[in-house]
Amino acid sequence: MSEKRRSKPLTSFFVIWTGQAFSLVGSQLVQFALVWWLTKTTRSATVLAFATMMALLPQILLGPIAGALVDRWDRRRVLIFADGGIALATLVLAALYALDLVQIWHIYALMLVRSAGAAFHWPAMQASTTLMVPDRHLARIAGLNQTVAGLGNIGAPPLGALLLELLPMQGILAIDVGTAILAIAPLLFVAIPQPEKLDVSTSGGVISSLVRDMRAGLRLIWGWPGMLLIIVVAMLLNLLGTPALSLLPILVSEHFGGGAVEFAWLESGWGVGMVLGGLTLGLWGGFKRRMVTGMTALVLQGIAIFSVGLVPGSAFRLALGAILFTGFMNPIINGSLFATVQAVVQPQMQGRVFTLLRSGALAMTPLGLAVAGPLADVVNVQAWFLVAGVATSAMGLAAFFVPAIMRIEDRKSNADARH
Fold first, then answer.
1. What pTM did the predictor assign?
2. At the top level of CATH, which class does the domain 1-192 belong to?
């Protein structure tokens, strides 16, 4: 590792990271408040489903384009404009609430804007991390990111419920604007190193050159079996994992005969597990080979998911323990995968690779829900946990016998990144 690589501005990174962490929690708080407002106002599952699609589609559809642009643009400015755009849209909605003019479609529009901003923000932040954090600490940072997400999952619902009793909706939205300012402020004073620019010739027009950038990202992944398989693993994890979480209310009511309290325990168990797993990875850093860490955690998570499907209706506490352990493994899996991509992909290409990974994974959510729902209705809800558990562990075990995955860190992307 070069001296330049060792001397990355880690302190500057944490200044930026702290602001972004506050912004993430603020966003989760507002997301909960808006979903609950829609639920209370409309009592419509269709409205909630459409709101979910508004929060997903821009990231799925814009991902490849956003990745190519992030690799061209100054990533610090991308972060500033993404945070600023989301804050401005939130401020407009707050004004509509204050004037008592808000309509359902305004909520949809805000979710659309927030998702579009996230399509640019997430890859820009991931790619910037690579330029500011030494390789040996990438898994730890990924673990800390997962910890913050887990804390938000635990804290945002009760805090949001409390604030809904104390503040009007515009007051809650103002909190999100405030946390966005906390995220933007450090970016105005702290520099983010930029990678050496690849050829971005606009011969043939800007659109043609952008298409070439996108194709370069696809070529890199398609011609690199290890990276392609990592993205496939991420897609399958989302295909299996998201439906399992969405079926928890039915598992509680139909199998355990419980109610809202039991469901809240499972939700909290997942969140606590994520926090503990993120902290563990943040402190430990994982094995020397990140893929060993990730695939071992994947096997263990599959066993935990399978266990949920086996637990009898009279043993709710065992299910709670299994859900907590599932949540514990999740940040170790994700953190290892993200850190691997950051370590082996050229910084100039990371925007494209990360957005292709994210778009592919998010695109699996509707498909997974479409399969899991009917399966749970026809058989029972435990069946999905049994199927998902076996498939998850099998995927992790199989990876140990695929050198392209396990030894991916032996190869760095280099000249393959040409346009």
1. 0.74
2. mainly alpha
Q: Which tokens sit at 261?
A: 């309290």
Q: Tell me which residue of 199, 170, 152 sits closest to 21, measured CA to CA.
A: 152
Lookup: tokens for 152: 């938000």
Phi, psi of 191 (to 5 degrees): -80, 145
- CATH class for domain 201-413? mainly alpha
Cα–Cα distance measured from residue 124 to residue 121, given in angstroms and rounded to the nearest whole number: 5
User: Do 167 and 318 touch, CB atoms closer than 8 A?
Assistant: no
Distance of alpha carbon 341 from alpha carbon 347, whole angstroms: 10
What's the sign of the alpha-carbon dihedral 28, 33, 38, 43?
A: positive
Rounded-to-integer distance, Cα 58 and Cα 70, Å: 16
Please state the domain extents for the chain: 1-192, 201-413
Q: How many CA atoms lie within 13 Å of 171's alpha carbon, on the beta-carbon side?
A: 8
Cα separation, 85 vs 354, whole angstroms:
21
What does the pLDDT profile of the chain (419 residues) look like in tens digits?
Answer: 443 444 456 788 888 989 988 888 888 888 878 877 887 788 765 676 677 778 878 888 887 788 888 888 888 999 999 999 999 999 999 999 999 999 999 999 998 999 899 889 888 888 888 888 888 888 888 888 888 877 777 777 777 778 888 889 999 999 999 999 999 999 998 888 877 665 555 455 567 777 777 788 788 888 888 888 888 888 888 888 777 777 777 788 788 888 767 877 887 888 889 889 988 998 898 898 899 999 999 999 999 999 999 999 889 999 999 999 999 999 899 889 888 888 888 888 888 888 888 888 888 877 777 777 677 777 778 888 998 899 999 999 999 999 999 988 886 544 344 33
On whether the CB atoms of residues 239 and 367 are closer than 8 A, the answer is yes
